[in-house]
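tool_log.txt
---
The assistant was asked to compare two proteins side by side. It first ran the structure predictor on the initial sequence, then on the second. Raw inputs and outputs are pasted verbatim so the downstream comparison step can read them without reformatting.
(1)
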Amino acid sequence: MRNDRKQSIVQGAQALFALPNFCILDTETTGLDDNDEIVEIALIDKNGNTLLNQLVKPTRRIPSDVIGIHGINNDEVKSAPSFKTVWSRVERVLKKQKTAIVYNASFDIRMIEQSCGKYDIEPKLERFTWKCAMETYAEFYGEWNDYFGGWKWQKLITATRWAAHYLECDHYGTHRALNDCRNTLLVLQALAQYEPQPK
């Protein structure tokens, strides 16, 4: 059953790469709460080409503990465009790519909605197909969480290290949007190429 589950995931990843287009999206934010917003957003295509890599000026300051995680400070974003300006560029990419893959999609979708909300923008994200690479990798990893009744989520760095080892390649640094997009692509590529071990 374990190999059957993994084979299904592999086939799903292969089907994804058979699509004519998809993009991978990642954000860095001012924090994790309901009032937080995006300070960096990146999108790449299925071949790893950068479609957008943009710092964003938030409406609030980035707390020092958050700066310690992603390294984006308030001086760097003070001359960056607002999310209102950046969203139109993101939207154009999403309209062309149609499918967006995100590691922890629910978080990034919420941050897009919160950032749009600062400017009374209705993002209408239901126009696009969203897929969560974290949920896919959690099922592949196969650690069951009895409390939540589902597969235990794994951090992107855990998935990235597995993918880099499996593909025998280097991975990218974490906690910057473009690198996390590239790491997510690496995970998807490893899943698509994975060969389950015989029973």
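(2)
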Amino acid sequence: MYITIDTSALIAVIGNEASKYKIIEITKGYSLCSPVSVHWEIGNAFSAMFKRRKISIELAKQALAVYREIPIKFIDVPLEKTLEITHTHNMYAYDAYLIQCAQQTSTSLLTLDKGLKVIAERMGISVLEIKS
């Protein structure tokens, strides 16, 4: 059984954030999938951290090594469908790719992004919560 995992949850795990162990606990026994775009979103997240001087290149490389160890099945999602989602819900394409991935694979979505959570639930997608 699969879970669609988004960039926010992956960054929390590979960046050793407070929610790391809760995410690991929730995903035990499941396989992970994500749209192909998540791979590039990881790079974008680190570039944003560099701009804010929140992380060194050395720590980013260590985090990428951890990321490469996470078995994720990357799903190709149709661009036309995701554009419809972005238009209908006035959202960024990267978020729409995650919603489309969850719909396409009939999986729950694991995200720390509250805005994405709201839209996914509105669209009938089960969202896994990280409770504090």
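---
observation on (2): Residues 103 and 125 are 7 Å apart (CA to CA). The two ends are 25 Å apart (CA to CA).
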